[in-house]
Amino acid sequence: MDLISNTGLRSHLSDIKKQLEDQPTGFIVVSPFLANDMNDLLSEFDFSSLESFTLITTFKPNDPEQLTKPFQLRSVFQYFETNYPDINISIHINNSLHGKLYFLDLTPYKKLLLSSANFTRNGLSNNSEWGMLISDEDVIQQAKDEVFADLDLEGITETQVKNACMHAEHYADINPNWTAKPEVEADILGVLTSAEDNANHNPKYFLKPIGHTDSPIWKDDRQDFSQQFQKQNFSSSKKPVAIAKGDYIITTAIGSCSLLSYFRATGRPEFATAEEIEKAPWLKRWGWYIESKNYSRDFGSRWWEFDLERNRLANEFNELYPQIPVTKAGGFNLKSINYGSDKLELSPEFGRFLIDKIDVAVK
After folding, report:
1. Distance between CA 71 and CA 172 in Å, rounded?
2. Rounded to an integer, what distance in angstroms lies between the CA atom of residue 200 and that of residue 264?
3. pLDDT tens-digit profile of 3-48?
4. How far apart are CA 269 and CA 237, in angstroms?
């Protein structure tokens, strides 16, 4: 265990730089406060060995950071897209966060810098800050488990952050004196990640296939669909205007035909940018997307354990309710999913039937 001190020769900034020279594959930053100029701070480091960069920070409702944090988070996404496009970026929110931790995944060992220093220029080099560099893997794993067990929002997306920036700019425009009296009455990210919509009194239900015939999803793959926020992609040829905020999206596997999880739309349809398509060419065909929130994360983490196959469930529903169709259009089967449709609107009765099956499976 080593002492890291900004008042000595080994500052937090220089120590993190040194640890990154050892070629870690993962770097997790846990810090409530972030540098005003995140691009400038991130440019201090060589992240070339990383496969993943994770940031856990705050985004407190009714707080001045509602108008500053969106731009700091946007800078993180933009910096890595420009300089390290192959690194997987994850940003999570914990609004009770006060601790500052820096995890480095090295081979064959791990390091944790447990500190008083925020991920800011002052915190890492200018302020009088102290930290301990820990190598005990049991302690490191315990700290990591506790950090990830206490998240308010997990995996917020770049689209949500971009929209938060627009909301913040609008709030600042209509409240130009907010800096003189910083009493911000807003919960921008709470709105953007919520599926609740007072105008959507009768939410619709959609069945959406995941995967394709060249890359089917089988139970033995054990692919995880538990992420809290996910983009639901749709054909580039037609904007999915039928899906509104608050509507349900039940995902099903191409291949196993199993149900994977169910979501509610949290935003409106948006189209992938040219930069996103260049990075992921498959978006040329599936460019439209809708942000969604997962309401069955436990099920999505182990869907393969349950025998919830869509066609069998449709047959079961037909036997129980022979007069009620399974699709909004009046059909009594799900065959159109097998012919390349990117979504199928279900009857409300069958949509609720599938969701009940998922909820009951994990009780």
Report:
1. 13
2. 12
3. 998 987 789 999 999 999 999 999 999 999 999 999 999 999 999 9
4. 13
User: Which of 103, 130, 160 represents a domain boundary (last residue)?
Assistant: 160
User: Lowest-confidence range among 47-61, 79-93, 326-340, 349-363?
Assistant: 326-340
Tell me the one-letter amino acid at 333: N
Q: Could you tell me the pLDDT band of residue 68, with boundaries at 50, 70 and 90?
A: very high
Considering Cα of 215, then 291, then 258, then 237, what sign does the dihedral take?
negative
Give the helix/strand (H/E) hosting 229: strand 229-234
3-state DSSP assignment of residue 354: helix
Q: Please, which residues bridge with residue 232 across strands?
A: 290
- CATH number for 266: 3.10.590.10
How many other C-beta atoms are found inside a 10 Å radius of the C-beta of residue 253? 23
Q: Is residue 127 part of a domain?
A: yes
Instruction: Give the C-alpha separation, 128 to 269, whole Å.
Output: 48
